[in-house]
Amino acid sequence: MSRFVDRVVIHVAAGDGGNGVASVHREKFKPLGGPDGGNGGKGGDVVLVVDSQVHTLLDFHFRPHASAGNGKGGQGGNRDGANGQDLELRVPDGTVVLTPDGELVADLVGEGTRLIAAQGGRGGLGNAALASKARKAPGFALLGEPGEAHDLVLELKSVADVGLLGFPSAGKSSLISVLSAAKPKIADYPFTTLVPNLGVITGGETTFTMADVPGLIPGAAEGKGLGLDFLRHIERCAVLVHVVDCATYEPNRDPLSDIDALEAELAEYTPSLADDLSERPRVVVLNKVDIPEARELAELVRPEIEARGLPVFEVSTASREGLRELTFALARIVEEYRASRPKAEATRIVLRPRAVDDAGFTVVEDPQAPGGFIVRGERPERWIRQTDFSNDEAVGYLADRLARLGVEEVLVKMGAQPGCQVSIGDLVFDWEPTTPAGIAMTMTGRGTDARLEQNNRVGASERLAAKKARRLPGVYDEYEDDDE
Ligand SMILES: Nc1nc2c(ncn2[C@@H]2O[C@H](COP(=O)(O)OP(=O)(O)OP(=O)(O)O)[C@@H](O)[C@H]2O)c(=O)[nH]1
Ligand SMILES: [Mg+2]
């Protein structure tokens, strides 16, 4: 079977966020001038943009990987890193975006409609931005977050620019196979083609698609043969091409009566279509002229078809005669048709794949680790990614954030024991309670990181949290992180 170019799987990778930097301002006679580490830049997004000049998904077929630029790291002197470059991918109007599991992400309609297919990672905050009253000179910064990366399926509903019509064995599949890279099944028994094949053809500057449908027979419009379902596939075609077998030996069949018979089917079928097919340009291809009798017949009927105002092309898919002229003629008609179509509205909608649930978190028992727990949630998982685990202070900051969100409290409620295994995102660690919710607190001041030194010193925010916890158990979620 042929390759379906109207359905492609693409791999989109947004840029990573740049790391924040920990830096201290230095001046003569002012050795510790305060933190001045800048923030990392945001990673670039991969964005799908509807462009009415694009008609196929062919480019993605050849280049399925797309990645946007990374954000630059922050620098000292409060210099923020540059944002990564967005990558815009131009897609045809009517492109449907799905997850690999077939879940609909978006239906991209209208010039300029945009979908952020992969969101760039946030840049990490530098130590200047992390400074607060309680933490005057942070000796750490946050890491940039990795950009989103995943596979998406693109599908294009408007099947083809050119639709082939013809009796079984007229040579429709053969024609597509010689004009394009599609490799449909070809055989000399009728109804070889069971599903529509799509081929992509280039004629000069124009790229267009051609749909091969199963052979039609009289009565198709009432469901005879295989044709009815497939008539639908030619509904949106710019050009209809009659492929006529000039070498058939069946009685009562000749090129003219074949065309008439199929036109009658189309007329019959048309009322059920949104668009009227009778106005659609038509071309007649007289096939198999490599056979001498067929060429004679073709030359005989050509004037009569031309008299009906239809362009005629004598071709042979076997000897490849006449194909070039046909390709260029089709390209021209397709161009004219496209130019005559009303432009799609510029809707400029920006769509995001899914709403970001930024609020809470859940804790479940870890089925893999007896006595262990898994913490899930957009924020805790992000915080893990932002943490530089080689920096003790950064780890302490993470612990603060998790405690303020109420993670520890929930762990305690669920019966977590000190030393049990806790997983958050990619991080697996042995849990040591650090907050009032976890252990009886010894109240002390706060210097560098307390918990790593195991001396249980507590900061102002934790004291506040402890107070709140005593008064209003279970409302830690209200705490907003100070950097968001
Ligand atoms: N001699 C000759 N044979 C051809 C030519 N084009 C197609 N054929 C033969 O005609 C037979 C039918 O060709 P297909 O391309 O499968 O015809 P189709 O119109 O797709 O048929 P269905 O799928 O059944 O509707 C095959 O045996 C082809 O080899 C041609 O230009 N010359
Ligand atoms: Mg076929």
Describe the structure.
The chain has 484 residues and is an alpha/beta fold. It has 3 domains: 7-157, Spo0b-associated Gtp-binding Protein, Chain: A, CATH 2.70.210; 162-340, P-loop containing nucleotide triphosphate hydrolases (Rossmann fold, 3-Layer(aba) Sandwich), CATH 3.40.50; 362-470, GTP-binding protein OBG, C-terminal domain (GMP Synthetase, Chain A, domain 3), CATH 3.30.300.350. It is built from 12 helices and 19 strands. The strands form 4 sheets. The chain has a 6-stranded mixed β-sheet, sandwiched between helices. The two termini are 53 Å apart. Bound molecules: guanosine-5'-triphosphate (GTP) and magnesium ion. Residues 172-173, 192-193, 212 line the site of magnesium ion. It is found in: Cytoplasm.
Briefly, what CATH class of the largest domain? Alpha Beta
> Looking at this structure, what is the CATH superfamily of the largest domain?
P-loop containing nucleotide triphosphate hydrolases
Fraction of residues in β-strands: 15-25%
Return Rg in Å. 33 Å
CATH architecture of the largest domain: 3-Layer(aba) Sandwich
Helical percentage: 10-25%
CATH fold naming of the largest domain = Rossmann fold
What is the structural class?
alpha/beta
Distance between the termini: 53 Å
**Number of beta strands:** 19
By DSSP (H or I, 4+ residues per run), the number of helices equals 12
Strand order in the sheet with the most strands: 10-11-9-12-13-14
- Given as residue ranges, the uncertain stretches (5+ residues, pLDDT < 50) are 1-5, 437-456, 472-484
Ligand types:
guanosine-5'-triphosphate, magnesium ion
The tally of domains stands at: 3
Overall pLDDT score: 81
Shape: elongated
The biggest sheet amounts to: 6 strands, mixed
